[in-house]
Design a protein that fits this description.
Blueprint: E1 4-9, H1 15-24, E2 28-34, H2 38-47, H3 57-62, E3 68-71, H4 78-87, E4 91-94, H5 102-114, E5 119-121, H6 129-139, E6 146-154, H7 164-167, H8 173-190, E7 193-201, E8 206-209, E9 216-219, E10 225-232, E11 237-243, E12 254-258, E13 261-265, E14 275-279, E15 286-288, H9 301-312, H10 320-339, E16 343-344
Parallel strand pairs: 1-2, 1-3, 3-4, 4-5, 6-11
Antiparallel strand pairs: 6-12, 7-10, 7-16, 8-9, 10-11, 12-13, 13-14, 14-15
């Protein structure tokens, strides 16, 4: 396959995962990087031995040979930068979450479709070997028809991190920062959702954190404990808890309960296992061998899959419709809590196709 030239806007920490993927996957080649701070882009290019040039955002978007641009800016900027990319006539793939507001996110999707351009979005961890194995077990009927389940991501939150204030501000919080992994995994396993019923809260107006040498007080601008039930179109009812208020817990990341057994799904913020199943008639969990590869850190595999889809004409898996639907599900938790009632969702998406089995590392299609 002829390599597709891609550009990167936003040269923060996560950019290394996308840059390193270019060395692993045969389908892409990075043709430039840009950042709102020119010195950050220049440092990123130098860090990678100047395999690609640093440039301004305008220069990158003007390069005709760049077909797809990866948007790694902060969540609040995702919509604006996605629109810039699309208006330049290029396909856009952005980091999670897809946006912070449904009206703005819908605007991106409507504009992309009007220009016949593609939109993609992380997370792509659902394409890893662990999640794909869990998907195969469900599709092959190992637990019968899924009827219920849990998706639980709880911790104290990154309150001591140097960038802690970012995680407690609009665009982040436990739901928009960590929820995309869990909700996207559920859509991959079960298909689209139809409603959310939830109660959410924050219990402190501020927290103290930052590096140990320079602790400081910062505001909490988002709800920090969200709990509710997501009703899926397939009929499954999944209890979801996302929290920055918990010091320790003993719950599995995701469990799916079916008419013929139960399934333990690995942490959707990783690519590997373990995957465990307990079928009717048994009382013990049995660990299953993984059916698919890409079990190590393969972030950016979704962008690479999008490149393959552009070449073949098929649908790409980490697509904008899915990301937009996941965003609405996540935002519906606070909306339901505020309204005090169930929220019926207005978006939907197709369940992404599973990856083929037996792929060679660095390849995504048979």
């Amino acid at each position: 396959m002829e390599k597709t030239k891609i550009g990167i806007i936003g040269c923060g920490m996560i950019s290394n995962a996308y840059i390193n993927a270019a060395k692993r996957f045969h389908a892409i080649e990075i043709a430039g990087c840009a950042d709102i701070k020119p010195e950050v882009a220049q440092a990123k290019a130098a860090e990678h031995e100047n395999l690609f040039p640093a440039m301004s955002v305008d220069e990158l978007l003007a390069k005709k040979e760049i077909e797809l641009v990866i948007n790694l800016t902060v969540p609040k900027a995702h919509t604006a930068v996605n629109m810039q990319i699309l208006q330049a006539g290029k396909h856009a793939y952005c980091e999670k979450p897809f946006g912070v507001d449904m009206d703005e996110a819908n605007k991106v999707m409507d504009y992309a479709k009007s220009r016949n351009l593609r939109v993609g979005c992380a997370p792509d961890t659902f394409l890893g070997g662990g999640q794909q194995t869990a998907r195969k077990l469900i599709d092959d009927g190992w637990i019968g028809r899924p009827v219920a389940g849990t998706a639980i991501v709880m911790g104290r939150g990154p309150e001591k991190w140097a960038h802690a204030p970012f995680f407690y501000d609009v665009g982040a919080g436990p739901m928009l920062d960590l929820g995309p992994y869990y909700i996207t995994a559920l859509v991959n396993l079960l298909g689209p959702a139809k409603s959310v019923t939830a109660v959410t809260a924050k219990f402190e107006e501020s927290r103290v954190g930052g590096p140990d040498t320079v602790p400081h007080v910062y505001p909490v601008n988002v709800t920090t404990h969200l709990t509710g039930v997501v009703e899926f179109e397939c009929g499954a009812l999944i209890t979801v808890i996302s929290s920055f208020e918990v010091y320790k817990h003993g719950h599995a990341p995701i469990e799916i309960y079916g008419t013929a057994g139960s399934l333990q799904v690995p942490d959707p913020n990783t690519f590997g296992g373990p995957v465990k199943v307990c079928r009717a008639g048994s009382s013990e969990w049995i660990e299953c061998p993984l059916s698919h590869g890409y079990t190590d850190n393969s972030r950016s595999i979704g962008a690479v899959d999008m490149v393959y889809a552009l070449k073949s004409g098929r649908a790409h898996r980490a697509n904008g419709d899915q990301a937009n639907h996941v965003l609405e599900i996540m935002l519906a938790f606070d909306k339901s809590s505020k309204l005090g009632k169930k929220v019926e969702l207005t978006t939907s998406c197709s369940r992404p196709a599973p990856l083929p089995m037996g792929l060679e590392d660095g390849e995504l299609d048979d």
